[in-house]
């Protein structure tokens, strides 16, 4: 099975309980596709949303897959309803520079990382930043959360790792 996006995809995420994949594209669009894991049939496009003015670098399902959260070089973070494709909330200027990564931490918190090495923790209920770390001087290339110990592991472009205890 193959999906021809016709544009560069910066990120993707699989829905936690349905055969749906979300892609964040260089054009700022987010596309969701339904696929049949048992067949070779072509995936069906469910949603196509112009989520950001600039490239969409990160995409993550939250709220048990009811919402797709995306982040962009335009420094915004957008929450979109998966069923309707309608915007739920947008945080413009979520960071001072381009947002590269998003990761789920708990049922009510997510983390974002940007081009200047800043990591923020967001409360999805209040839609506010509840913590910020100036972790590096360069962009955050990836993050992983270890829930048992409340540790957030991050990487930057030069392969350095850092560990934050939340």
From TrEMBL:
SUPFAM superfamilies, A to Z:
WD40 repeat-like
Source domain of life is Eukaryota
State if Zinc is listed as a keyword. no
Q: Which residues form a coiled coil?
A: none
Database matches in InterPro entries = WD40/YVTN_repeat-like_dom_sf, WD40_repeat_dom_sf, WD40_rpt, WDR55/POC1
Q: Which windows of the sequence hold WD repeats?
A: 49-90
Q: Which GO terms describe its biological process?
A: determination of bilateral symmetry; developmental vegetative growth; embryo development ending in seed dormancy; endosperm development; polar nucleus fusion
**Keyword set, alphabetical order:** Repeat, WD repeat
SMART domains the UniProt entry points to: WD40 (SM00320)
Which Pfam families does UniProt cross-reference here? WD40
Any one GO CC term of the record: nucleus
Cross-referenced PANTHER family: WD REPEAT-CONTAINING PROTEIN 55
Protein family (similarity comment): Belongs to the WD repeat WDR55 family.
The protein, known as: Uncharacterized protein
Q: Which organism is it from?
A: Amborella trichopoda
